[in-house]
Sequence to fold (612 residues):
Amino acid sequence: MKTRPPARADRFDSALGFTAQRGPVARLIQIVLYVVLVAVFAGPLVALMVGAFSPVADPSRLTLWPETLTLDNFTAAFDRGVLRYLANSFIVVGLGLLLQILVSVSAAYALARHRFPGMRLVLLLILSTMMLPEEILAIPLSLVLADVPIVHVNLIGTLAGMIIPVAAWAFSILVMTEFMKEIPLELEEAARIDGAGDLRILWTIVLPLCRPALGVVGIFGFTMIWDQYMLPLLVAQDAGQFTLPLALRTLRTDEQAGLGVLLAASLLALLPSVIAFLALQRQFMKGLTAGAVKG
Amino acid sequence: MTTTRVAPARSGAPAPGAPARPSPRSKRRVAWTRRLLPWLFLLPALILFAVFKFVPMARAIEMSFHEVRPYLGDRWVGGENYSQVVTDEAFRDAIWHTIVLAVGQTGGSLAIGLLLALLLEGAARHLWFVRTAVFLPTVAAMAVVAEVWRVIYYPAPDGMLNNVLSWFGMGPSQFLNAEDTSLWSVMAVGIWRGAPYDMMIFIAGLAGVDRTLYEAAAADGAGPMRRFWHVTMPALRPVFAILFTLAAIRGLRVFTEIFLLTNGGPNGSTEVLMTLIYKLGLERNELGVAAAGSMVLLGATVVLTLAVQAFRRKDSR
Fold:
């Protein structure tokens, strides 16, 4: 009895052999389990979505099966400037991400394709910024934003104050660097012999080959910038500069707005990151493991 | 060794086989620009990091030894700010809450994340769907998560979660509104958002486990539990180390969820270091003490990170 029938071999495809269970009872347990898991983790977000489309005055009236569906919450939310906040969010995430990609690609090209004295120190500095998030630096960062060293510009109360600081992100630089190291040198050498300069080589040869890494950096940068809270909180001075996540707190305390409006605005703040994730899921997962390995 | 390689050119020396440059003078200039080139490409990142990371850090260190007085000039106070951080009761409570929250969220996310990974590992289409649904909380912005959970935690008996609890004959609970449940309620939200993240990392780790080891263990008569304990767990060790490192960096600096869920209340029962520092610095203008608090937090983060790294290195030897 040493040899096993091949039909059962797939129970070694997972650590516990759980997914390979056969039989109606095991199947039923599995289905119930999946339903519970989806309900626990996705349920609250579904409740948010349903609430945004139903006439709810207070949280105890919220149900997953509303009798009527309405768009009133959204029109009321738009009256309260939610479109403006949404536009601010998109401006910040759009420009911030563009800058972040340019900065990361440029830095990664130096780190992956050149060897120079001081390189290890640069890498160490970049790594160490991961331990210096906006939260810990909040107090001095707000002073720096109010009077940027050397150029003496006040970024408080401007969207630029939320965009420029996110342009350099260690994760993006490291992921790009690792990826660029994998690209074979031959193509570049050929171009170099043809007399192309570094900038041309980076733009026309390396960058197109980096497209998979750009997907990873793009989706991660997007969710990271969209999730920014401390930075907008330090920078924004009035509603004109609020990003949508920042505005939710104000909408909550606005007594005339009501819960429906808050939920509608929350849904608008949720959807872009969820859509971006679903669209670029493969890249996201790649970045997740890459980022974790980098620490 | 005679082939034309770009490597020597990259390190600054003129490449012997490179296309002939007309004169030695321009050749020297090329060597110079070659040496400068990587720094030019690094310049944007380095300037941004300097201005928005390292200058603020230097300012924080400086401020932490001063009583910061706008317009009057700073007054050197030595370690006074630090002793206030360590002795002040509000700070002590905040440090305690931060530690409880960080340990609870890290442990809870790791345990539930591992469980989820074991249940949802596999290539089947329906598993992919369940995994995607379970992962959504991690993608949602913290501000959205906080507003959703404030609604779910609505403390009235007919609030959403209280309703669910009543099906099982439990509750009603005040959740965020009572001192004895507020910290746990915040922790649950953190685990809800953190566990799916850990799950994905664990699944990536599980995919790397040699399948033949499972078969060999089974052939030796090991049941699923022993197989898990002796084959899977050792293989997942590096994953645990990674997740601990991330948790050390992220767990101690919690701000947004507290700020939005309870803002430290009720009666200070969920006040953590970051919310206290924020209030001290930006609402009460005690910048020196706030900076000292930040430095303590940074110190703890660095020590924890290095400790996990050292442990990891010792472990892998």
